[in-house]
Write a structure and sequence with these properties.
single chain, 237 residues, mainly alpha, Arc Repressor Mutant, subunit A, Four Helix Bundle (Hemerythrin (Met), subunit A), 2 domains, 2 strands
Length: 237
C-alpha cells in the first residue's frame, strides 16, 4: 500500500467511526469492538485501526483505557477542532434544523464581531478590496461565480478585521458554509446580494459596526425563517 493509499484508507476509516458516533450507532460511554474486530468489520488492517483510533482520541471522540479498550466520549463536551471539522463534514449533506440554527449563530458570533472590529480599524485599501468582490459578483454569469464572490466577500470581512482567529474559525466552517451560501444566493439572487454587500461596506466605512452587526443578525434570522417556512419574501434592511 502506497503512502497515499494508506492515508486515504485511514481517513475513510476515521470518518466511518466518526459518522457512527454522530448517527448514534456508537453512543457516549459505549465500548468499541476490539481492534481485531474493527479491522474485520471495516476490511482494513490492524495498523489502520490502531492509528485511526489514536487520531479519534486526539480529536476528542474516544477515551483510551489501558487494558480495557476504547470508549466513546460525548464529543459535544470533549471534542476539539478536529471534531468540529468532522461534524461539519458529516452534516454538509443533511443540514437539519438544529445544525442550521447552530451555523446561523456561529456566523453571527464570528462575522458579526469581525464587522464591528473592521468598522473601527478599516483602511481605504480594505474598503477597496471589499468593493472588488462586488465587482466580481456583478460580472458573474453563473450561480457558482456569484456564490464564490459572495462567500469571498464575507470571508474577507473576517480576514481584514486583523483578528487572526476569526478567518481561521470561519475556514473551519467552509464545507457547511458552501451549502449555506448556495442556498442563500439561490433564494436572494444576484441583485439582493449586491445590495447587501454595499450596505455592509457603507456601515463599515462610516464606523457603524453595530449597525452592520444588526443587519447581519436580522438577515440571518430572516433567512432562517425562509428556510423553515418556505417564504420567498425578504428585506435587506
Amino acid at each position: 500500500m502506497t503512502p497515499v493509499d494508506k492515508a486515504s484508507v485511514l481517513d475513510d476509516f476515521v470518518f466511518a467511526i466518526q459518522s457512527a458516533i454522530f448517527n448514534g450507532e456508537y453512543a457516549a460511554d459505549t465500548k468499541l469492538p476490539s481492534e481485531r474486530d474493527l479491522a474485520s468489520q471495516y476490511a482494513v488492517s490492524k495498523t489502520i485501526v490502531h492509528d485511526g483510533l489514536l487520531m479519534l482520541v486526539q480529536q476528542g471522540f474516544l477515551n483510551a483505557s489501558p487494558r480495557r479498550g476504547y470508549f466513546v466520549t460525548d464529543y459535544r463536551q470533549q471534542g476539539r477542532i478536529g471534531c468540529l471539522n468532522a461534524y461539519l463534514k458529516y452534516q454538509q449533506n443533511h443540514l437539519d434544523h438544529a445544525t442550521f440554527d447552530a451555523l446561523i449563530e456561529a456566523i453571527l458570533a464570528i462575522e458579526g464581531s469581525a464587522i464591528c472590529k473592521l468598522a473601527i480599524n478599516k483602511t481605504t485599501d480594505d474598503l477597496v478590496r471589499l468593493e472588488q468582490w462586488i465587482d466580481k459578483v456583478n460580472k458573474a454569469t453563473s450561480t457558482a461565480a456569484i456564490i464564490k464572490g459572495f462567500s469571498g466577500f464575507h470571508h474577507d470581512i473576517c480576514f481584514l478585521c486583523k483578528n487572526t482567529m476569526f478567518p481561521l474559525l470561519f475556514n473551519s466552517f467552509t464545507d457547511l458554509l458552501d451549502v449555506f451560501y448556495k442556498e442563500f444566493v439561490n433564494r436572494y439572487g444576484k441583485e439582493d446580494c449586491i445590495k447587501l454587500m454595499y450596505a455592509f461596506i457603507e456601515y463599515i466605512a462610516k464606523g457603524q459596526g453595530q449597525r452592520g452587526y444588526n443587519l447581519l443578525g436580522n438577515l440571518l434570522r430572516q433567512f432562517r425563517l425562509l428556510i423553515k417556512r418556505g417564504n420567498e419574501s425578504v428585506s435587506s434592511k
